[in-house]
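Following up on my earlier thread - several people asked me to post the actual chain instead of describing it. Fair enough. Here it is, all 368 residues.
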Amino acid sequence: MIRLSKSTIGEAEKKAVLGVLDREYLGMGREVEEFENMLARFFGRPVACVNSGTAALHLALQAIGVGLGDEVLVQSLTFIATFQAISATGAKPVPCEVDPATITIDLKDTEKRLTDKTRAIMPVHYASGMGALNEIYAFAKANGLSVIEDAAHAFGSLYNGHKTGSFGEIACFSFDGIKNITCSEGGAIVTDDAAVLQKVRDARLLGVERDTEKRFAGQRSWEFDAKEQGWRYHMSNIMAAIGCAQLKQFPHITQIRKAIATRYVEMLNGIDGIEPLQLDYRNIVPHIFVIKVKKRNRDALRSFLIENNIECGIHYYPNHMLTKYKTSYILPATEQAYREILSLPCHLDLTNKDQDYVISKIKEFFHA
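Reply from S.P.:
Thanks for posting it. Predicted structure:
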């Protein structure tokens, strides 16, 4: 089976983890501090690491004061984590349409969803593309909204020549097992807002004030205060050790992922019925590679590929169609996109031979 996605871990990561195990300090300590410092140099901005991308979104929302009775604009076609992070604050995620070309949020539709309860907009960088990010920030400014970027897919990608996360209000990243870099699990919040960052740092450690500094020094807070709701969301040294090793290899990771996507686009060109997303693979680092099946049935192609030992996926089932987040309105563009999208294998161990086989089977399906 050619896998859809997979973790790629080498000797550097294994050695880093063994170093943590040998020291027997597995919680949040110097490796987490080192990883945060490396990421801060990468982005050119301060960073706080947590144990998942979902936790990053949750704490970012909490830090800007989003809570019960508030509303957050977000595209429906995203992983449920985006919606769960919003509803975890007590706020309501308001599902919006996507631009079919990029599967990023449709600003014209968001205008219809604005109410006096709207506090923020959460653009999702789907398949590593950022859509109309400048326009999103202009829209937010005009309507007095905060912007929290769900950049889980977009680590290392560029927008107008700048790294995602190096600009804007708040960007949240994921480092789970199959992201552009992994910590096995993990996430990060990137922002210049010192007050937001301090709230995140306290909240990730159960609301214990200034506990981060103690942890980084190998100590604990025995007498402390807590004024806000906190969570056990901190990153461990084991996670951070893997992340440090991965980040050092990121130029190589970038090269491979871009090459895979570029090669797919070239090889899919001319197949009537297949349409890649309109993304600039010179400037993004693809976490997933998504096509739209415009002719014949997407599920039939998916079944055919799986029967031929090619794992593929569907990113994602629209959240407004889930029981928890079901809406009284329909989102036609989103629902049409869902019926068409298919994710092809994309990971560091995918070979040219693997790609050749995938493309040959897609051609076979359409020409059968």
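The CA atoms of residues 235 and 316 lie 27 Å apart. That should answer part of your original question.
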